[in-house]
Amino acid sequence: MNYKNIIKIVTSIFLISFLTGCGIKQVKTVDNNGNITYSYEDEEIVYTRPEVSELLKNRINGILKTMASNDLIKLNKEYIHSEFGFYNLFKIDGIKVFLEQKEIYNIIEDETEEISHIITRVKNGSTKLKIIEKDIKFDCSPNNDAFYGWNDDGLFLSSITDSFLLKMMKEINVYQKNEYNKKDFQKAEKIEKTSYKVILTPELSFYITKIDDNWYLTLIDRITTDCSSIQE
What is the pLDDT of residues 200-217, one digit of tens each? Predict the structure, then answer.
């Protein structure tokens, strides 16, 4: 075996070891003639939801305290991850839409309901509420106003994170091919499979996700409480 062949073998072994260490799965394929080829594919990501902790509860209270003081600068800096950002889910003429943002904008105009408007209505007493681990439901009740709204009042934390984000991404890709790539879907899956949903009645609903050993606001849901239907 000559020197060049030895270099090739060593290089191949190093490459395989490197790819395996980076979470790349090696796939062996044998054709009808017995020829062997190797390809590589990403291993499936296993998502786990961290346990409820004091750090999580403290971060929730910190978010609510910052909202109650209407301090958007602090909210954006401390509670929204600078790289991950957050998703803003809402409706336009009854149609579900979303925006990927790096910060919450201070929109004063009241032509449309904005996140900044909801934040101004978060009361100082919100941080004194006990965080109740419970999933509550919102009912639009078109036939009976007595049942309209959430089926409980207070501050709630739930591991049932059934946002519309992942479904909307998939639907958009049907009509606009490759609008969202693998990384986008992984972000959406991380939010829906590892986050907690926080609801402060009557109108604030957001998701909080653990990123880089801390909890950040990653999604604000304004769809659930918007009962508007698609306009013809």
Answer: 999 999 999 999 999 999
Backbone dihedral angles phi then psi of residue 199, each to the nearest 5 degrees: -125, 125
Look at 227 and 111; give whichever has higher pLDDT. 227
Query: Do 224 and 205 form a contact (C-beta atoms < 8 A)?
Result: yes
Query: What's the predicted TM-score (pTM) here?
Result: 0.81
CA separation for the pair 155, 149 (Å, rounded): 14
Q: Are 170 and 146 in contact (CB under 8 A)?
A: no
Please state, as a whole number, how many other Cβ atoms lie within 10 Å of the Cβ of residue 127.
17
CA dist 150 → 24, 58, 139, 195, 206 (Å): 45, 24, 6, 21, 15
CA distance 229 to 232: 9
